[in-house]
Design a protein that fits this description.
This protein is an all-alpha fold. It folds into 3 domains: 212 residues, MFS general substrate transporter like domains (Growth Hormone, Chain: A, Up-down Bundle), CATH 1.20.1250.20; 45 residues; 196 residues, Up-down Bundle (Growth Hormone, Chain: A), CATH 1.20.1250.20. Helices cover 78% and strands 1% of the residues. The protein has a two-stranded antiparallel sheet with strand order 1-2. The longest helix has 30 residues.
């Protein structure tokens, strides 16, 4: 089935009626990722499960999201981005109901998987809708809108854990699932009001629809990413047989997608688009560096510096505040190249400060480290997103945006194993310094990728 294109003109193409539901939808994935941490203990007590089992509620969402982000992008090219966006919200609504009423741990696991699938639709479809609106209004790259998406992600990082703590403390852990019901309803209403309908679809035969869906490509991609993430998450006790599985599935995916008439991933375009490849690599390295520094420092501050969880939260609060300010400044000016370089520089400086720190370091040094985290996060968030926007063909925006998020998930999951490898059984000063060397190397990699890539635009057009 195909979709006709109609043009919508508006003196203010990116007013809040249009952008608010897209921003809200895009925050539902990260906020669900962080909120659950506050309810794991209570869930374990109620269902008599250990920490390892309850932790699967975190990993299943990451896994489903990493696989489904590009897939939802693909579906939006067939059925329309607004329809897929709303479909994801409906899935989230169902997930909230299942989780809130879950009679067993298995239902909670199902709910978290559905949350991962449902919220995965928001970001790639939102990017497709923004791209379509910008092209119709001939606005060029909507830097401020892209910046708002980056800022929204920062805000949910700040408020995810506190919100989860309040919900769990006042209503119990089931509220962490039930809160998705009103969030889904509000997002759905705002979308129906503010986002124009997709164009009518032309009915096609079942065979053509199945070919357009590229189900073999989706299955091969899912198998590749699942195997890769399982391997990366178990590096402290490597499951080596997963490596050849990853290689075989990835090779099969490439061969199939090169032959598919309407592939999930246009490997020919991607192979010829080296700037886009480097953007994905930068995004993965940035996520690996930022999450390793953030969660590694948090663990070290609690175990070695003997700070309470609330004190650690206060130390890290400047990170999010500074990230928001930097993302706002950079996006308003449309800077791309220099922020990417400075993100690498800031990560190297972060590593340098970490190397000077010990368990009895002054709290001001800890806050300084937090501020450097904020520079890296603020510079890289908008700039990588803007680079992706200008490097991607318009018709590929949804899938490319989904792959962009998948790259970040790979970095985030890899960071957990990296922290485990460097710390071992306890987060000591020595382990913290080893982690700092790795983070410094990642910063150098980001910096060199940005300096040597002459195709990164200096500013958005």
């Amino acid at each position: 089935m195909t979709r006709h294109t109609t043009t919508h003109t508006s003196p203010k193409p990116f007013g809040w009626r249009f952008t608010a539901p897209l921003l809200l939808g895009s925050t539902l994935n990260p906020i669900n990722s962080s909120m659950i941490a506050t309810g794991l203990v209570g869930i374990g007590v109620d269902f008599h499960t250990g920490p390892g089992t309850t932790a699967t509620l975190i990993s299943v969402l990451y896994l489903c999201s990493a696989v489904m982000q590009p897939t939802m992008g693909k579906l939006s090219t067939i059925f329309g981005p607004r329809r897929v966006f709303l479909g994801g919200i409906v899935i989230l609504l169902a997930a909230g109901i299942v989780g809130a009423a879950a009679p067993s741990f298995g239902f909670l696991l199902l709910s978290r998987a559905l949350i991962g699938v449902g919220t995965a639709a928001a970001y790639p479809t939102a990017m497709a809708l923004v791209r379509k609106r910008a092209d119709e209004a001939e606005t060029g790259v909507p830097s401020r809108v892209l910046g708002n998406f980056s800022i929204a992600a920062q805000i949910t990082t700040v408020f995810g854990l506190p919100l989860g703590g309040i919900l769990t403390g006042v209503f119990g852990w089931r509220a962490l699932f039930a809160v998705n019901i009103p969030l889904a309803v509000i997002t759905m209403i705002f979308t129906l009001i503010g986002v124009a309908k997709d164009e009518p679809m032309v009915r096609e035969g079942r065979a053509r629809v199945l070919a357009a869906l590229d189900i073999p490509g989706i299955l091969l991609f899912a198998g590749t990413i699942t195997s890769l993430l399982l391997f990366l998450s178990s590096l402290t006790a490597p499951v080596w047989w997963l490596l050849p599985v990853v290689v075989v599935l990835a090779a099969g995916l490439i061969v199939w997608e090169r032959r598919a008439s309407r592939p999930l991933i246009d490997v020919r375009m991607l192979a010829g688009n080296t700037p886009l490849q480097r953007t994905y690599l930068r995004q993965m390295l940035a996520a690996l560096g930022i999450y390793s520094a953030l969660y590694g420092a948090s663990q070290w501050m609690e175990q070695s510096a003997h700070l309470s969880a609330s004190a650690v939260g206060l130390v890290l609060l400047p990170l999010s505040g500074l990230s928001i300010v930097i993302a706002r400044v950079v996006s308003r000016r449309g800077w791309v190249r220099w922020p990417l370089i400075l993100a690498g520089v800031a990560l190297v400086l972060t590593a340098g400060v970490m190397l000077t720190m010990t368990h009895d370091s002054n709290v001001l040094v800890l806050i300084g480290m937090s501020l450097l985290f904020g520079f890296t996060n603020g510079f890289s968030g908008f700039a990588n997103q803007a680079a992706l926007y200008v490097q991607t063909p318009a018709e590929q925006t949804a899938v490319a945006s989904g792959l962009y998020r998948t790259a970040a998930y790979i970095g985030a999951i890899f960071s957990a194993s990296l922290i485990g490898l460097t710390f071992g059984d306890a987060a000591t000063d020595d382990g913290f310094h080893v982690l700092a060397w790795v983070i410094g190397a990642l910063g150098v990699g980001i910096m060199l990728l940005s300096i040597l890539d002459r195709k990164i635009p200096r500013v958005t057009a």
